[in-house]
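ok trying again, last paste got cut off:
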Amino acid sequence: MVERSKKPSAIPVSPLAPTPQVSISDDNSRVIATLPSGDCLEVLLYGATIISWKSANGRENLFLSKAAKLDGSKPVRGGVPLVFPLFGPPAAGHETAKLPQHGFARSTRWEYLGKTSSESTTLSGSGGDSSVKLDFGLSDSMLPAEIRSAWNHKFNLTYSITLSTEDLETTLVVRNVETTPWDFKVLFHTYLQINDISTVSLTGLEGTAYVDKVEKGQEMSASSKPITFGGETDRVYTKVEDPYTSILEDGKKRFELVRDALTDIVVWNPWIEKAEVMSDFEPKRGYKNMLCVEAGSVNRWLTLEGGDTWEGGQTIKAL
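nice, full thing came through this time. structure:
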């Protein structure tokens, strides 16, 4: 054998950057996604309900009642339940009149369609992919017979939840697969985790009129001041012009919410008496540590023509 005086050196192979990890629980009830940064998301297939969203430092951003039912026996109290195709109690005389409160999306098992992660073009020193998108689907054929008979329309819903190192994005695509139109309302019923409701204020809703459900649906004039909390709050802010809503604690931004194709914001805190009578709300003084700031289109019906598609969503940044 002839010895080479100069052998070619091996080409070094750089390690691949870490990628998001997505798994399904052993009981096939939930999907868990974790970014290389440590940011983590947990979605219950019942209702496609987000029940946990943790930042890289381990801080939980969503409130989940300790008495919330996670077995599919009732909608989840906390996280981000999805409201569709109606908001609130059924409206007498409307085609949704026989549906349960807030519709069926939050109380039906969805199908997990798969994941998509951001492409990482850098190597291991970058920290890896910075986002992952989980897709879930629901169609009329997946509904229980009693729901199909109560609202006999054909539809496809695609719910995309994107976790990144900077924020959480939720997007709903609604498709009318019939030839005739039907009406719907939609809402992301987001329960935010806070330290103390007495230190919280909301900005971005100044100058917006609202319906006060605590005051029996009375229409209230717009205020020029940020919203603060000292009792039960249940308001629907309508035709919100500012796309940004900020949640502050002790004057510092804790969350920022951005809406896309959604016209309304619901602000809700049950306070003392309402929390006491809700069987699935624990601890009873947990009202101090939660605030619902819910992006949606709920004040008026949206009409979706046959064959058409509607899309809307929100992005929440935890600060």
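cool. The helical segments are 145-150, 271-277. The first strand starts at residue 21 and ends at 24.
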